Amino acid sequence: MSCSVIWEFAVEEALQPAFERAYAAGGPWARLFAESDGFLETRLLKAKESPGTYQTVDRWTSREAYAAFKRDFAEAYDALDEEVGDLSRRETYIGLFDEIEV
Fold first, then answer.
1. Is residue 33 within 8 Å of residue 59, measured between CB atoms?
2. Which CATH number belongs to the domain containing residue 92 in this structure?
3. Is residue 102 part of a domain?
4. pTM above the 0.85 mark?
5. Beta-bridge mates of residue 42
6. Residue 101, domain member (yes or no)
7. Are 30 and 76 in contact (CB under 8 A)?
């Protein structure tokens, strides 16, 4: 069963273009995730009602695939987080969600 990891970010207006480049599909986060076999896609969402509020939805084939990525790419993840982490003033882990198929 596939799953999604969701994060929420608060981003200053001046940093929004750089944030969007870093966190959107095709950005460095999605490219890092794509090095892992179980990665499906990244989606970047921007709230209309709350300026500067974004959410990322990173989809994986399974919880196991996501856990394997976290284990196998921990060093690269931390390095990228250090590189682009200052683009947001707040970063909140929302959770790991299983996708429902009926």
1. no
2. 3.30.70.100
3. no
4. yes
5. 58
6. no
7. no
